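Q: what sequence does this backbone want?
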């Protein structure tokens, strides 16, 4: 494997959710690179059913933080990107997930932390839509906080970290089958 390949694998394997950020802005050129990566996300029939709203206003960050059940950390982030997906009638959460993961990986490649906040109810998405003036045709499924991770502070409760072992989540050949 190339060094570049192993670096990329390490980046992907090490991607974690940041929830505590330093009070330091995201450089504009980094943000533009992240948006450019996001633009190239794949979608069914290349429909690109999304619109991204860049939020940097402190008061707006605080309002967004109150829109989701577990979105409070957005208030302490220097900025976020709210992802709106055209709907209904699309696998909106799927489109949102692909886009988000790319944003998070691009941020990590630039040395930035990122964290997803999910707006799980129609009511919460309505509040986000109203705040940002989004048209009703867009579902704002999530916001991704971006910034420099405050590594001196804990990012999550222990139960929110770690992963199941591979044997628990992978079968070979048939459900329940073991690796040969
Ligand atoms: C669909 C989805 C929704 C999530 N929503 C939230 C959220 O609202 N608030 C939050 O703090 N983390 C949220 N997360 C992040 C997860 O809590 C996190 O990825 C998981 O606990 C694993 O943590 P780690 O990636 O830091 O190891 C979400 C993740 C996904 C995939």
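A:
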């Amino acid at each position: 494997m190339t060094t570049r390949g192993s670096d990329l694998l390490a980046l992907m394997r090490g991607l974690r959710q940041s929830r505590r950020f330093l009070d330091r802005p995201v450089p504009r050129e980094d943000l533009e690179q992240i948006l450019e990566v996001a633009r190239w996300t794949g979608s069914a029939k290349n429909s690109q059913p999304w619109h991204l709203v860049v939020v940097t206003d402190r008061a707006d960050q605080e309002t967004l933080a109150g829109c989701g059940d577990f979105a409070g950390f957005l208030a302490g982030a220097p900025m976020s990107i709210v992802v709106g997906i055209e709907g209904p009638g699309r696998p909106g959460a799927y489109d949102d997930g692909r886009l988000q993961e790319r944003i998070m990986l691009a941020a990590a490649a630039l040395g930035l932390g990122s964290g997803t906040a999910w707006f799980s109810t129609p009511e919460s998405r309505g509040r986000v839509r109203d705040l940002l003036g989004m048209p009703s045709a867009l579902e704002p499924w999530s916001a991704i906080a971006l910034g420099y991770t405050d590594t001196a502070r804990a990012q999550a409760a222990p139960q929110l970290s770690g992963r199941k072992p591979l044997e628990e989540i992978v079968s070979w050949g048939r459900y329940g089958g073991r690796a040969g």
